[in-house]
């Protein structure tokens, strides 16, 4: 429930377009959640909702988008019973995805301010199955949203909640929290690479294609023969959204070909969108025109800065302006 709401709140800001930052890339910083996400995760992601809340122009845009969305029955009942509001009370989420592409397992940790007793009472009222994992109570409930499924969670402390798409997944997070199971951060090399890609980002995701792939990527055989790792990030500031992506290729020659093909595709897309009558399409064409492509060894990077006004046009809402200091 908490995970779905958090992802829904920020998904509207993620568009596949990038431009280089005015300054150098920020230095890698420790990412606490990497110590709690199970090591078998192929896709690893993080969301910093506290950073989003710090930008009034973006909050206004997200409210415009959220106004047209319908919350699930599960989430509405959860809010009514607990008073929890993810836009106010949820600060950060770290998650991993693994297992079958058709029915992936999701597991991670949410950080924020939780009314623990109200949340547990609501879970019990929903008929939650309660098990004990090394001294920590784990709750598993069945969701009412179709298709029906399960959601499991456990309070790790006052501000951290482990969650999973089933009890086994949430139990893996508990084991990582307690140091009984390997996490993605256990491998120093992998931890360092994830911290580099997450540095300075408000939202980021890294997919190691050898470990896990979403269904739509499995069908892209040409892409799989070229790319081994895909990463995307969004940095929020008063200047707008800096979006960037990185593709790690199997060899430098393939990176060179990908770099050239992306530039050609961006140019073609820009020309096609510029002829469209609606403002959102023309804004997308403008964003494509601002893309910056770079290549270094086996890596291809693409970046763009989307101003608040451009974000508003992409979303079809009135122009937004950043708050003045």
Please describe the structure with a list of short key phrases separated by commas or semicolons:
twelve-stranded antiparallel sheet, alpha+beta, single chain, globular, 325 residues
Describe the protein.
With 325 residues, the protein is of the alpha+beta class. It has one domain (2-315). Helix content is 38%, strand content 26%. The protein has a twelve-stranded antiparallel β-sheet, with helices on both faces. α12 packs across α13 (308-315).
What is the number of independent domains? Answer: 1
Side by side, the strands of the main sheet go 4-5-6-7-3-2-1-8-9-10-12-11
The profile of the biggest β sheet is: 12 strands, antiparallel
Contiguous uncertain segments of 5+ residues: 1-23, 320-325
Record field, number of beta strands: 12
What is the CA–CA distance across the termini?
Answer: 36 Å
Strand content: 25-35%
Overall 3D shape: globular
Q: Which secondary-structure class do the elements indicate?
A: alpha+beta
Tally of separate helices:
13
How big is the Rg? 20 Å
The H/E string reads HEHHHHEEHEEEEHHEHHEEHHEEH
What value does the average pLDDT take?
A: 87
Helix content: 25-40%
Summarize the structure.
The chain is an alpha+beta fold. 38% of the residues lie in helices and 26% in strands.
Write the layout of secondary structure elements.
Blueprint: H1 2-11, E1 43-48, H2 49-53, H3 56-66, H4 73-82, H5 86-89, E2 90-98, E3 105-112, H6 116-125, E4 129-133, E5 136-142, E6 150-155, E7 160-164, H7 167-177, H8 188-198, E8 203-208, H9 215-218, H10 221-224, E9 227-237, E10 240-249, H11 252-274, H12 279-289, E11 292-296, E12 299-306, H13 308-315
Helix pairs in contact: 3-13, 11-12, 12-13
């Amino acid at each position: 429930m908490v995970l779905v709401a958090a992802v829904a709140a920020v998904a509207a800001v993620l568009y596949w377009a990038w431009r280089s930052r005015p300054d150098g890339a920020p230095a890698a910083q420790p990412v606490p959640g990497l110590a709690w996400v199970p090591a078998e995760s192929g896709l690893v992601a993080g969301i910093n909702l506290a950073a989003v809340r710090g930008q009034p122009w973006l909050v206004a845009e997200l409210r415009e988008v959220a106004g047209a969305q319908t919350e699930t029955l599960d989430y509405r009942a959860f809010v009514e019973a607990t008073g929890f509001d993810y836009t106010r009370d949820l600060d950060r989420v770290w998650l991993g995805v693994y297992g079958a592409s058709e029915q992936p397992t999701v597991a991670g940790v949410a950080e924020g301010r939780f009314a623990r007793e109200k949340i547990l009472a609501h879970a019990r009222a929903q008929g939650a199955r309660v098990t004990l994992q090394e001294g920590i109570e784990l709750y598993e409930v069945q969701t009412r949203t179709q298709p029906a499924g399960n959601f499991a969670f456990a309070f790790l402390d006052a501000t951290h909640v482990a969650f999973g798409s089933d009890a086994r997944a949430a139990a893996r997070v508990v084991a990582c929290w307690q140091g009984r199971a390997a996490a993605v951060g256990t491998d120093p090399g992998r931890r360092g690479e994830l911290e580099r890609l997450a540095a300075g980002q408000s939202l980021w995701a890294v997919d190691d294609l050898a470990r896990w792939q979403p269904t739509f990527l499995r069908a892209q055989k040409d892409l799989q023969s070229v790319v081994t790792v895909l990463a995307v990030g969004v940095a929020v500031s008063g200047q707008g959204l800096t979006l960037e992506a990185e593709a790690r290729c199997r060899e430098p020659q393939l990176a060179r070909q990908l770099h050239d093909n992306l530039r050609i595709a961006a140019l073609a897309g820009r020309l096609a969108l510029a002829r469209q009558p609606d403002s959102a399409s023309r804004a997308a064409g403008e964003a494509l025109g601002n893309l910056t492509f770079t290549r270094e060894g086996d890596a291809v990077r693409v970046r763009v800065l989307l101003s608040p006004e451009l974000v508003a046009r992409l979303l079809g809402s009135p122009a937004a302006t950043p708050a003045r200091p």
